[in-house]
Structures are given as structure tokens and as C-alpha cells.
Amino acid sequence: MSKRIDVNDLNVYYGDFLAVEGVNINIDAKSVTAFIGPSGCGKSTFLRTLNRMHEVLPGARVEGEVLLDGEDLYGSGVDPVTVRSQIGMVFQRPNPFPTMSIRDNVLAGVKLNNKRISKSDADALVEKSLSGANLWNEVKDRLDKPGSGLSGGQQQRLCIARAIAVSPQVILMDEPCSALDPISTLAIEDLIEELKTEYTVVIVTHNMQQAARVSDKTAFFNIAGTGKPGKLIEYNDTTAIFNNPAQKATEDYVSGRFG
Ligand SMILES: Nc1ncnc2c1ncn2[C@@H]1O[C@H](COP(=O)(O)OP(=O)(O)OP(=O)(O)O)[C@@H](O)[C@H]1O
Description:
Blueprint: E1 5-14, E2 17-27, E3 32-36, H1 43-49, E4 60-68, E5 71-72, H2 80-86, E6 87-90, H3 102-112, H4 119-132, H5 136-139, H6 152-165, E7 170-174, H7 182-195, E8 200-204, H8 208-214, E9 217-223, E10 230-237, H9 238-243, H10 248-254
Parallel strand pairs: 3-8, 3-9, 6-7, 7-8
Antiparallel strand pairs: 1-2, 1-4, 4-5, 9-10
Helix pairs in contact: 3-6, 4-6, 6-7
The chain binds adenosine-5'-triphosphate (ATP).
Adenosine-5'-triphosphate binds at residues 14, 17, 19, 37, 39-45, 57, 230.
């Protein structure tokens, strides 16, 4: 099941430094939303607050609300580990567990959540997750080989399989193609298109063609200068952001005049 995200008045701090200020955004279920903007404007920082991943850094904290279908992820008594199982994340560099087999990589998140699972259920889940990540046909004959033996693009799809194996509601992707060649990038983009039929997908990308190709909505973030907080400047349908932006800064950025 896929859920929506509503963010209200979110500020993100690293210690005393206000990195992102005053974000309000409503992200639809079963859609792809792209975050774009120049380096340092806080895209990754903001993305990580959507599943409380920033909390692994000491001193990183938020003010404001992030609601998953109306439930505040920062409410008292909410366990960040549970949040991260509902809202998965795929990183810039593919990070499969290198010595673990392909099969065990897919099951790693499920085991982390202390779920007991029979061999036949595990086999079915491995096939379903790898198929969902468009990787099954390439690896089905070598499931017991280490994940590190795959190509970069295959490793990234393995990470996506690992993320979807825990049945998340949302998948966050932080520049998932930046370490990949163009063919592998297209494979991931095709996969994102398929994933949105079941999940809410949010992707940070520096590649504007990619944002235009894969996303339904685009959020443009910007920063007024070094040491200033990043802000959400404009959020709209992707076609509007690229063809008819309301803000001059958005237009300058998407037309390549800065950033
Ligand atoms: N761990 C950290 N500790 C302190 N400040 C940080 C940390 N991570 C990021 N920042 C700062 O927060 C601001 C936003 O950084 P962030 O990485 O989120 O931007 P970004 O838009 O994702 O950039 P890029 O496109 O280059 O990846 C920057 O000023 C950055 O220096």
C-alpha cells in the first residue's frame, strides 16, 4: 500500500546551523516527485527527514511536522526504525552488503525487522522483490553468489529489491543514478515508472532531463547564499516547472542559467 506525505513548516538543523527552512509540501501517493536545485540547497537533507534518516547524525534535528497519511512521523512514541521500514531509502552509491549473497541481500531488511519467515516464503519474497526491481532474470541462476559480483546498475537494482522486500509505502531515492552508466540509468528510470504503480516515490536528482522524464511533480529548492538556509521555492506539475515556471529563479535554474 502506498501512502501520501504532508510536510508542514519543516526546519532542519545541523547543530545551530539552519540548513533547510520552512518547507511545506504535499506529496501524492502513487506518484513520482523530483527534488531539484543547486548544490547545497538542502535536497538530500530534506529527503532524509522524510524517514528520519538524518537522526543518525548527531546534532541533526527538525522542527515541524511530517505526516504519513496523517500520522506524524515525529510524534512521541514513534520508533524511527519502524518509520524507516515504512519509508525505504536508496542511496547515491549502490550499497549492497558485499559479502552477503544476492538472496540474503534482498532479505536483509526483513531479517532486521525480526520477521521470522519460512524458506518457501523467503524464496517467494526474493523472486517477487527481484522481479519488482527488474533484476530477477539476470540473477535467478546465481542467487547464492555475493551481491558485490554484480555490475553497478545491477547492484542499484538489488538495493531497490532490498528496499521493496519490506513492503514499504514510500521509497526515497537520493541521486540513485549518479554513479551509473547511461544504460543502467535508463533501466532505473524505467523501474521508477513501474514502482509508482505501487509506491510513492521521491527522488533527488541533479539531472534535469531525468526529473522531466520520470516525475509527475517537481520541487525546486534554492539557497540565497553560503550559510543561508535552503528553501522550497516552487512546487508544481513537472511540465509546469519545466515549461512555465512561476518564479524567475526556477526558470533560470531549469534553463541552465545557474546551478
Ligand atoms: N552532516 C552535516 N553536518 C553539517 N552540515 C551539513 C551536513 N550535511 C549537509 N550539511 C549542510 O547542509 C546544507 C545542505 O546540504 P545538502 O547535502 O542537503 O544539499 P544538497 O542540495 O543535497 O546538495 P548536493 O546537490 O550537493 O548533494 C549544506 O550547507 C551542507 O553543507
